[in-house]
Each structure stands twice: as structure tokens, then as C-alpha cells.
Design brief:
Distance between the termini: 35 Å
Strand content: under 5%
Radius of gyration: 15 Å
Number of strands: 0
Shape: globular
Structural class: mainly alpha
Length: about 70
């Protein structure tokens, strides 16, 4: 199975957030710098991730019959 470049960067982003989690907000600029990825590209990845997260939450809620 191949993972796209955007997918690999999204994984790097999530791992970075997990590793550097102190309970305080982490700036996208800091993550981009640590991962050597442009901040603009990180913004695109975050945008897609937020959209997908909303879809997953709605799917879960519907299938758990929490909302109809």
C-alpha cells in the first residue's frame, strides 16, 4: 500500500504533536520548522485533516444512533 506525500506529512504532523505534547498549544510554525515542511503546506494538511475529522465524528454519531 502506498501512502501519498500529503499522507506521510500528515502522519509526521500527528507524531510531532504527540511527541511534543506538553498540554499547551503547539504552533503550526513550530511543527513545520521541526519537520522541515513549509508552513503553507502544513496549513493545507491541517485543512484536509479537519474536514476528515468532522466526517468521522458525524459518521460515528449517526452509527451510534446518537443523532438521526
Amino acid at each position: 500500500m502506498k501512502i501519498s506525500t500529503k499522507g506521510r506529512y500528515a502522519l509526521r504532523l500527528m507524531l510531532d504533536l504527540a511527541v511534543y505534547n506538553t498540554g499547551e498549544p503547539i504552533s503550526l510554525k513550530d511543527v513545520a520548522k521541526r519537520q522541515n515542511i513549509s508552513e503553507k503546506y502544513m496549513e493545507q494538511i491541517i485543512s484536509v485533516a479537519e474536514s476528515e475529522a468532522r466526517r468521522v465524528v458525524i459518521y460515528f454519531l449517526v452509527h451510534q444512533r446518537i443523532i438521526r
